[in-house]
């Protein structure tokens, strides 16, 4: 069975129309398998985390009880994006697995919310946040090698603690950027195929082949997001990651967790925002 459903155009040409929907199950099962393998690895085989640490008493004393991590604006963006993503996933895929409802309208509205939130995030992250903090740097790559060697029982110096984001989170972000942009760009064009009351409908904007490929790309990135979002939620609820998840709700992480996993030299404590100061 191929991963594309084909149709014949009025001119007798084979054109793709969308992905085959069994890929929904492939993505769900792939996500589930990843979680099972990861949980077994962490629970049974993984050596305990060790980092190189040499904070001077002055550095330790300067760290506040609550280390600010995500501003209110950054948290609001994250949760708006998360809600729109879930609405998009459920409206897209429930009808394909037999739960029928008038999904297209809810879907494109959530799509516009996601698009607006991402546009906002690009401006916010580029001009108001530390843009480079989410992209892998040289120390991340050096430490990835060290961590790999140590997990295989080989000799290697302990890795440094992370900067603001662990390397795994940086990779996740890069993959979600690619799949997110793919669904957004194709989705905005696909709005020309349906009655939205916003754009004038024009199904002749592209030829059958181009439309078909666009639907296939939208579908592939969409099913990829099933696996990506499931794995993201799995990590969010894992006990050792809860301090990170909580920081996406309350905006801060504890001093102990910060000093355990984050290097003050690589991620300096930022000044708390006035709203965080008010809450103590
Ligand atoms: C998590 C993100 C998304 C997922 C999982 C997703 C998934 C899907 C799927 C599976 C379809 C059915 C396509 C087909 O029949 O081949 C679809 C259709 C559609 N999507 Fe998305 N999508 C997402 C984001 C977006 C965004 C951001 C927009 C708009 C800005 C959008 C607009 C549309 C439109 C207009 C259709 C209907 C096309 C039609 O019926 O002709 N989608 N989406």
Summarize the entry for a quick read.
With 280 residues, this protein is mostly helical.
Structure description:
By secondary structure, this protein is mostly helical. Helices cover about 60% and strands about 5% of the residues. The protein is built from ten helices and four strands; from the N terminus they run ββααβααααααβαα. The strands form two sheets. The protein has a two-stranded antiparallel ribbon. A two-stranded antiparallel ribbon has the order 3-4. A hairpin with a 5-residue loop joins strand 1 and strand 2. The chain starts with a strand and ends with a helix. Bound molecules: protoporphyrin IX containing FE.
List the helices and strands and how they pair.
Blueprint: E1 4-8, E2 14-19, H1 22-45, H2 57-61, E3 66-68, H3 72-93, H4 103-127, H5 138-151, H6 167-190, H7 208-237, H8 242-250, E4 252-254, H9 255-261, H10 274-278
Antiparallel strand pairs: 1-2, 3-4
Helix pairs in contact: 1-7, 3-4, 6-7
Protoporphyrin IX containing FE binds at residues 18, 85, 88-89, 92, 104, 107-108, 111-112, 114-115, 183-184, 187-188, 190-191, 193-194, 215, 218-219, 222, 225.
């Amino acid at each position: 069975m191929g991963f594309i459903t084909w149709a014949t155009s009025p001119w007798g040409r084979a054109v793709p129309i969308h992905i085959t929907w069994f890929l929904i199950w492939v993505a769900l099962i792939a996500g589930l398998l990843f979680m099972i393998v990861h949980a077994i690895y962490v629970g049974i085989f993984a050596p305990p985390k060790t980092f190189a640490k040499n904070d001077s008493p002055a550095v330790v004393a300067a760290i506040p009880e609550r280390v600010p991590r995500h501003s209110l604006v950054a948290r609001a963006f994250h949760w708006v994006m998360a809600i729109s993503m879930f609405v998009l996933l459920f409206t897209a895929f429930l009808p394909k697995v037999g739960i029928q409802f008038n999904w297209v309208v809810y879907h494109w509205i959530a799509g516009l919310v996601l698009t607006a939130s991402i546009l906002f995030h690009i401006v916010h992250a580029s001009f108001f946040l530390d843009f480079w903090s989410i992209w892998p740097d040289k120390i991340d790559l050096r430490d990835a090698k060290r961590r790999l060697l140590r997990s295989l029982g080989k000799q290697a110096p302990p890795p440094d603690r992370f900067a603001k984001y662990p390397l795994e989170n940086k990779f996740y972000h890069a993959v979600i950027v690619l799949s997110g942009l793919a669904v957004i760009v194709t989705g905005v064009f696909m709005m020309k195929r349906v009655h939205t009351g916003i754009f004038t409908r024009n199904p002749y904007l592209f030829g059958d082949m181009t439309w078909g490929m666009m639907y296939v790309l939208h579908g592939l990135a969409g099913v990829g997001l099933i696996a990506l979002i499931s794995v993201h939620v799995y990590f969010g609820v894992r006990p050792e990651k809860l301090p990170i998840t909580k920081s996406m709700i309350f905006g801060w992480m504890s001093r102990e967790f910060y000093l355990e996993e984050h290097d003050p030299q690589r991620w300096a404590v930022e000044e708390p925002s006035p709203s965080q100061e008010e809450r103590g």
